[in-house]
Amino acid sequence: MKFLLVFDFDHTIIDENSDTWIVKCAPERKLPNGLRNSYQPGHWTEYMGRVFVYLGDNGVKEDEMKRTMTTIPFTAGMIDLLRFIGENKQLFDCIIVSDSNTVFIDWILKAADFHKVFDEVFTNPAAFSSTGYLTIEHFHAHQCVKCPKNLCKRKVLKEFLDKQLERGVSYTQIVYIGDGGNDLCPVMFLRKNDIAMPRQGYTLEKKISQLAQSLSPVQCSVLVWSSAIDVMSYLKVLIKD
Fold first, then answer.
1. Where are the transmembrane segments (predicted)?
2. Which of 4-8, 56-60, 122-126, 148-152 shows the lowest mean pLDDT across its residues?
3. Which of 10, 183, 194, 230 is catalytic?
4. Residues of each domain in the chain carrying CATH 3.40.50.1000
């Protein structure tokens, strides 16, 4: 009996958006209007690439970025939840699927000593160039019309499950914990026995309830959370059963 926990990162594990938090490193802690207005829907990763160039041009170094990023607060109850999962790793496989990037997630999880809780992190690859600039790439290419160009979380989840099946691992239940619009696509992929846990008051919860109203509800069960303690309470019941 094993459960798969799938986490989003921004506004789920951490209580902020890591990509907008990095702007605290910019001169006067803000971006010029021209750069801010250059974002085009579905092309967030390209936009962040330009933000990182701007920070590099203004002499923002890796150390300063790291110091800034590791001050992001975790969501209420999340530290307790991640500790609980860490203590029960024999029952839970745990992955992150996020539109952030490898550098930010790595820094934040390692600073809080939670990196061992997660088996895999699926996010946009980032690295510092030889000139000290942070660079970012698309996670993958996909054909899904519902998702941003760089990442379809359904595709990530499906490929992960297929790979696990090849290794002889199947899950009693998948628990998907997220908040954003791009979490709807993987939630639609979940089966009757699985559970989606959208964060209360965020886009994912609203989109799931819109689907229910239009009589095309998601197949899985839905349990809304406002503190990660709600998620932990559910997991405790799950492992008792």
1. none
2. 148-152
3. 10
4. 3-15+74-124+141-239
10 flagged as catalytic: yes
State the Cα–Cα distance between residues 136 and 151, nearest whole angstrom.
13
Catalytic residue (one of 8, 183, 194, 230) = 8
Closest CA to 122 of 142, 146, 105, 110: 105
Is a pLDDT exceeding 80 seen at residue 241? no
Q: What's the rounded Cα separation, in Å, for the pair 221 and 238? A: 14
Site of tokens 């008051």 = 201
Q: How far apart are CA 47 and CA 41, in angstroms?
A: 10
Known binding-site positions for substrate: 19, 99
The residue written with tokens 């996020």 in the block is 98
Claim: this prediction has a pTM higher than 0.85: yes
pLDDT digits 0-9 by tens, 6-26? 999 999 999 999 999 999 999
Specify the length of the chain in residues. Answer: 241
Is it the case that residue 228 has pLDDT exceeding 90? yes
Helix (H, G, I), strand (E, B) or coil at 234: helix
Which residues sit in the known binding site?
8, 10, 19, 99, 179
Known catalytic residue at 8: yes
